[in-house]
């Protein structure tokens, strides 16, 4: 049962697999479940405890599988039911666990529930989705006739007109992803039954896609709009809505607490505050094990509709402040998830790391060190463990992502220059994270013998697993050491956190304490050497290096000086504190 006492997932490291881009076993250019199984040796040697599989369900693929048409089957593109059962069994045999991605806010338009819902207004499943009549006095199906003026996540109006039934249905994402009506108890019970069947099949938990959007604020109302658009940001109308906690309580009581094992449950919660995170992960009976927050991943985004694709320079002060606020806010009462990368985020090495090729390896190792030494459960996104970077997209035609193409069209309609839009997509577009995994230096990086669905990064010949597997100074080797450190050190898992040098422009420093043990982590976010002692306001006492990103530091350099993009994890020796 999930509680705020010590649980196995406190000490775990999770590895996210974007199935279609991880490994292709049948040569069709698309990753599959058999491909994942063929690469389990890599994950076992890395030392991770949990494998998170992104959607492998039948889907029209409007949003790469997050538009689910059958919650309980395997899309033939990814393999068979037997492939999935074999993969789960093999993961368990190796002492790892598996969690699956479930999309409970919406389905595909091809899901039988929606097909029946739209068939007629009198359908028994009409109320399983959110239907509304056109706005009075406006021609149905024309701009402005939508029931509300909401702009969705993919830069589209959130309502699509269904001519057959004469009403609009709500979709916060693509038109192919209609939102389920969680106010309908039958919907909730159908979803809970589906999740219980997955538990019976052997999974060890769930990643809950946009779970904080399930409770809308009724009645649905218009929102303010910018002068240049008919549509506006409606996140206040559906983010962490009035019944969210009630729904999560029900989900915990009827699904999670019925399991015979302690589950890992992580909720994706865009727009959530620290207070929301504490309400969901804190208390005697947490609703979820942890959540994914987004604030720290917005520190290189501009505000506004297209902030993600109108990048601004990376702001270390904002990153430190945001991370510290969540560390302190959840404290000992809740629990953090720790991530810098996933299938919806561009590569962190390109976003937060050095722009200089000379420091590419160092900055990838440094970023991993900073992340893994915070309090919470770390997530490794495939390829980050070898320092994969953004793809050099040259045109909008090279992108596959629906969000990229919709944002491009919306931006152009508002008069944004193509070169400005392309610069934003090149830096922060989701396809940067979706280029295939780089296994070796062969033609298609060992990902496939066919033509990959997205091209591999041109740096694959240098940045790949095979090139790093026996290199003690590689990014991969450093990830192994960080994961081993977490497994062997209670202070990494449970130690208190305090941010140091909060206002320093280049130094990221914090301490972890447990009992009378004190560790200090220091990291240099610059291409120049950094005087740590001066930045910390003086000596902190004698210290020993536990783990660093570089070769052994020069004599006297521990907690004193950092080379470019270097990080040190240091134990302050007892009795030496200043």
Automatic annotation (TrEMBL):
Domain of life of the native organism: Bacteria
A UniProt-annotated Pfam family: Alpha-amylase
SMART domains cross-referenced by the UniProt entry: Aamy
Domain Glycosyl hydrolase family 13 catalytic: 16-420
UniProt-listed PANTHER family: ALPHA-AMYLASE FAMILY MEMBER (PTHR10357), NEUTRAL AND BASIC AMINO ACID TRANSPORT PROTEIN RBAT (PTHR10357:SF179)
Stated family: Belongs to the glycosyl hydrolase 13 family.
Record-linked NCBIfam families: PRK10933.1
Protein name according to UniProt: Alpha-glucosidase
Native organism: Sinomonas cellulolyticus
Organism placement in taxonomy: Bacteria, Bacillati, Actinomycetota, Actinomycetes, Micrococcales
